[in-house]
Structure formats: C-alpha cells, structure tokens
Amino acid sequence: MTFLLAIIIGVLYAAGIYLLLRRSMVKVIFGLIFLGHAANLMIFTVGRLTKGSPAFVPEGASQVLEPFADPLPQALILTAIVIGFGVQAFTIVLFKRTYLTLGTEDLDNMTSTDQLPGGKS
Hints:
α2 (25-46) packs antiparallel against α3 (71-102). The chain has a domain at 7-51 and 69-107: Orthogonal Bundle (Helix Hairpins). 60% of the residues lie in helices and 0% in strands. The protein is built from three helices and no strands. It is an all-alpha fold.
C-alpha cells in the first residue's frame, strides 16, 4: 500500500510541476491543486499507515500499544488543506484580476503592466 501511495504521490508532483510550467492560468491553478494534494498524501504516508488502530491509551495502561495511528500528521494535513484552499482562492482572484486588467490569459503575453489597454498607465 505504501508503494502504491509513493507512485501516486510521484505522479501528482510530476503533473503539478508540469502544469505549473504551462502558459495558461487555469493550468497553473490545477498545478497548485495537484501539488497540494501530493504534499498532503506524503504527510499522510510518513505518519505510518495503520488500519483500525486509533491512538487511544487503553484503560489501565500507561502508554499506547503498538501499532497505532499517529494523530499529528492527520492534524497537519487538516491545516494544510485549509491553507491550500486559501492559496488557491487567492490565486484564482489574482488571475481573474490580471485577466480583467491585461485582457489575456496567456502568461507569455503578460510581459509588462506599464502600458494598460486603452492607453491608461
């Protein structure tokens, strides 16, 4: 299972980086989404995959019995999901404003903001 997740994480990272290098703003946003999901899956995998073993201390015991699921990576993933949504929302708004100002979605055509459409500067 860990090997399969490693392959999936690698594919998500590769697709995310590939899309970040494209010329379209929509592809850049999808690249950010893929990178966020890959990072979350990597944190989840590093926290050890255990099935049906919560991190609770049994009654009468002094510590958690092995194997147990580590709750810290799960909490970090929840935080990363919220931060990822914030970054994605900011990027969408930034690209929309850029498109409305410059009139193009192609990142290569966005060379300068000195001369705005309509002769405004």
